[in-house]
């Protein structure tokens, strides 16, 4: 599974660093390092909806507050299905 | 003419409790490679010393730059300087480094600590000719220049540092020379070298300098071009032109901006690899494209660079930050401040529709302002800056 987080200017201001760091921590805790590839990307052109993230190409709007739910619903659940 | 250029940097600390510095440095660049640098140290400290040294350095640098003989310069100073009531003398010591065509340096010294000359990373001696001008004993030297030559001039506040506290007789001039010799090889800028020496003096004085201390560093460097791309062109049809002009330039290439680097990667037909390492909390990570020396995020990073640049031309307090950090802004700073002598900016004036949102602290005018401020700061560092808009 490929998860990308936008690290462009706008998403950076909206907290992409916190999102990335939280995801890195959650992935390590759950031992998902082998099945999830976390990557960065520059502007996806959806700055209004930032922090912009994609899971296997599917777009999601995430914020530092919703990152835990995002992780559970969009990353853990599909992987354990 | 050759492909060498002159890099000058200086810093002073004031006598404790004084708002004005009694040392004064003037740098006049007449034309490319022809530079007159004057360091004058006025008698005493405070306002009086400041007036004496300012007059001295201004008169000498202006007259020398106009090609007037040293004898006449000294005469003019002696006739102009106000006489000190208490001591009955008009007095300001001076050091002149006059560089012609980036080929020769004429060094004229009157009563300041001797100019340190570093060649091939080693302290080197140079011949001095003694002359007597209006009762003043003045030393004159001529040195043929080579790449990486470095001159360090200072006021007597430097060797006086630490008298009675750290050292019995102050910081010996030969020890200062050794200190500078060790720092020289690291690749610091002239300004940073001067800052480090003066900061060290400040420490030796225990934070309370008993005299104004100034250091001027002059480095002879090979010209080194640097190119920076910032923002996509306002007309998408110009992309090809902008990219080919940018990549055809000699020197290293820096690309700032997410969209800009995406476009550049496409143009080069190379993948863009953003990194996820947050080296500094407030600066977004950098990225990599084969064939580009540095790829960073845009406005936030460049804003930080501008902040560092402004500090550099003033007090240079943050060189310890940008000098070693590994975030995008620090990397740009090291490339622009330390490596580059000639900088070409390729600025795209496209408006990012996603940024035109009142909630975001980024907008188009801020971006254009950043370029203006950065190029002004770089110019005052003595670099040649060209800006092209697309």
Q: How does this structure look, described?
A:
The complex is a heterodimer of chains A (81) and B (390). By secondary structure, chain A is of the alpha+beta class. Chain A has a single domain, classed as 3-Layer(aba) Sandwich (Glutaredoxin). Helices cover 41% and strands 22% of the residues of chain A. Chain A contains three helices and four strands, in the order E-H-H-E-E-E-H. Chain A has helices at residues 9-13, 16-29, 67-80, and strands at 2-6, 37-41, 52-55, 58-61. In chain A, a hairpin with a 2-residue loop joins strand 3 (52-55) and strand 4. The longest helix of chain A is centred in the N-terminal third of the chain and has 14 residues, at 16-29. The two termini of chain A are 13 Å apart. The mean pLDDT of chain A is 88. Chain B has two domains: 4-222, 4-Layer Sandwich (Phosphatase 2c, domain 1); 225-389, no CATH class. Helix content of chain B is 33%, strand content 28%. Chain B has helices at residues 46-65, 70-80, 173-184, 190-204, 239-248, 258-268, 299-313, 319-322, 328-339, 364-380; strands at residues 4-13, 23-31, 34-42, 92-100, 104-110, 116-119, 122-123, 129-133, 136-144, 150-154, 213-222, 225-230, 252-256, 272-274, 287-289, 294-296, 342-347, 384-389. In chain B, the strands form four sheets. Chain B has a six-stranded antiparallel β-sheet with strand order 2-3-4-5-9-8. In chain B, helix 1 (46-65) packs antiparallel against helix 2, helix 7 (299-313) crosses helix 9 (328-339) and helix 7 (299-313) runs parallel beside helix 10 (364-380). At the A-B interface, helix 1, helix 2 and strand 2 of A face helix 6 of B.
Q: What keyword list fits this structure?
A:
heterodimer, A: 81 residues, alpha+beta, Glutaredoxin, 4 strands, 41% helix, 22% strand, globular, B: 390 residues, Phosphatase 2c, domain 1, 2 domains, six-stranded antiparallel β-sheet, five-stranded antiparallel β-sheet, 10 helices, 28% strand, elongated
